[in-house]
Design goal:
Length: 295
């Protein structure tokens, strides 16, 4: 099945959304649509091979308990496709319960929510906080254009931070992809964590690293998200044990080599923690998938 073949479902989901596509500091917190989430859940589930799951799911259960107790909780996840969050949400619904899945609150860049109808309908179907990502600013070379964009981005990001602080102290589990973009094998920089993640790590009581093995919607080589084609895969999402964000940040900064930006080094250690889990899981996943396909 191709994304382009899903017009009927996309149209249905678009009709369920009634949001202005223009973002401002007043609407950075976006409520999703429960009907759409169920449609998307069934859709992504169709591309999950038997055995797809969240491993060490007990850590997510514990994270939810802590969030309900008023502690701030953060998931830092690998990012390989636009199916990553819907798959996480669906698996949490199945393995834990819908309430825990609904406590997730992803931070998303404006590009995903304002771009093509296909990607926008996916991102806007879940509760989210919208930011103006730093990667977008990094691509602007004209000083005048940069100043113009900053007048838009700074108020939006300040408003997003206020919303995040409020929500993280009121039972929501903030979910962030620290690379800020999907990993594309032909672009190694797409797996580098963005520096702002340092601010997240140091301000959360609890941090959970989530590795994602498998890819049910590999990015197209053109970088055109509308050309991504779903494919069945064995998806194994693996949770780390919960760590203290402040302790992780302090220890990473202390270990930063001389001459290395300590904040970026913290982010690099986040990405390394995710990579370590991924590399440990992948051989087992491939063997498990091989057995599935033989049967």
């Amino acid at each position: 099945m191709k994304i382009s073949d899903l017009n009927e479902q996309i149209s249905t989901m678009q009709a369920n959304l009634a949001y202005d596509y223009e973002f401002s500091p007043e609407n950075v917190y976006q409520l999703g649509n429960t009907e759409n989430r169920e449609i998307i859940g069934r859709l992504v589930e169709a591309f999950l091979l038997p055995g797809s799951r969240i491993d060490n799911v007990e850590a997510l259960v514990e994270l939810r308990k802590r969030s309900l107790a008023g502690e701030s909780c953060l998931i830092l996840a690998e990012h390989y496709s636009n199916f990553d969050f819907p798959i996480l949400f669906r698996l949490m619904e199945k393995q834990i319960n819908p309430e825990t899945a609904a406590s997730l609150l992803p931070i998303r860049g404006m590009k995903l929510s304002e771009s093509t109808p296909i990607t926008a309908v996916f991102t806007r179907s879940y509760d989210t906080i919208v930011i103006y990502p730093s990667r977008s600013l990094d691509t602007i070379n004209d000083p005048n254009e940069l100043e113009k964009v900053r007048k838009i981005s700074v108020p939006i990001n300040h408003a997003a931070m206020r919303e995040m602080i409020d929500k993280k102290l009121n039972g929501r589990i903030i979910t962030v992809f620290p690379a800020g973009t999907r990993y594309r094998p032909w672009d190694p920089t797409s797996k580098k964590g963005v520096r702002e993640i340092h601010s997240y790590v140091k301000t959360f009581d609890n941090v959970l690293f989530l590795a994602i093995n498998g890819n049910a919607l590999p990015p197209h080589s053109s970088d055109d998200m509308t050309r991504d084609e779903p494919t069945k895969d064995l998806m194994i999402l693996t949770c780390s044990d919960i760590v203290s964000g402040r302790r992780f940040r302090k220890e990473a900064e202390s270990a930063a080599p001389d001459g290395v930006d300590p904040k970026q080094y913290v982010v690099d250690q986040v990405m390394q923690a995710l990579e370590d889990i991924n590399l440990r899981v992948e051989p087992k996943r491939l063997e498990e998938k091989k057995k599935l396909l033989r049967n």
